[in-house]
Amino acid sequence: MVGYDPKKKDLTNNQILIASSVSSVIARFLLQPVDVIKIRFQLQIEPIRHATGSKYQTIFQTIRLIHHEEGLRAFWKGHLAAQFLSISYNSAQMYAFERLTKELGENFPTTVSSPIIKTLTHFFIGSIAASVAVCSCQPMDVLRTSLKAYIYASEK
């Protein structure tokens, strides 16, 4: 799947979409609590120091505080919007990477012959694919973070 190999069968667009979606759903579900903690730290006005009396000071203190004040479900607030963003981003990135690698491999076969050139090619194509994904999903990320900020501010 990663990269183009002229000897192997290509994945279909649907297979790329399914693979990226399943991996996105699993990864986002597992990492959602970390994202909630990160956004709480980002939205906190006070500096993160023990002496200043800021609400969130350390990661473990933040975990305990959120769990105590809001319950375990609070770690998955905004999960649906984050899931949509994650699926969109990863699908765009995987699709762009697979298609660009295939096009390059078919039009410039020497790019897949040398290990060094292949590694550099994958690096640059991966960078381009990530750029495509960021450009296509940035508005959704801004909206998701703004919604979380609004919800967080209204709960204060």
UniProtKB/TrEMBL annotation:
Keywords: Membrane, Repeat, Transmembrane, Transport. Pfam families: Mito_carr (PF00153). Solcar repeats lie at residues 11-103. It is a multi-pass membrane protein. Its main location: membrane. One of its GO terms (cellular component) is membrane. Belongs to the mitochondrial carrier (TC 2.A.29) family. This is Uncharacterized protein.
